[in-house]
Write a structure and sequence with these properties.
- With 88 residues, this protein is mainly alpha-helical.
- The protein has one domain.
- It is 89% helix and 0% strand.
- The protein contains two helices and no strands.
- The longest helix is centred in the middle third of the chain and has 70 residues.
- It is rod-shaped, with a radius of gyration of 36 Å.
Length: 88
């Protein structure tokens, strides 16, 4: 059975087209990988900043609570030992 005219060239064109698409996909993957690395680094930095801010907020709240507690103790007129005994 004779081969149809031009059939030999179609395979070559398809192969070249696939190779171009593969190369384009690999380039896109490389670019996306770089973007992913950058976003991960940015996220890590933001998480560190958030942890630092949470730590500062907790320390500030602890100081405020301590000040309120000392103020309440002085307003009650009782000694620290008396208050500790009441808490037990």
């Amino acid at each position: 059975m004779p081969r149809p005219k031009g059939s030999k060239n179609k395979k070559t064109l398809l192969t070249e087209n696939l190779q171009e698409r593969i190369a384009a996909a690999e380039q896109e993957i490389a670019a996306l990988t770089e973007q992913l690395k950058a976003k991960k680094a940015e996220l890590k930095k933001m998480l560190k900043e958030k942890a630092r801010a949470d730590k500062l907020a907790a320390a500030k709240k602890a100081e405020e609570d301590k000040a309120k507690l000392l103020e309440a103790i002085s307003a009650s007129g009782k000694s620290v030992e008396e208050i500790l005994e009441m808490l037990k």
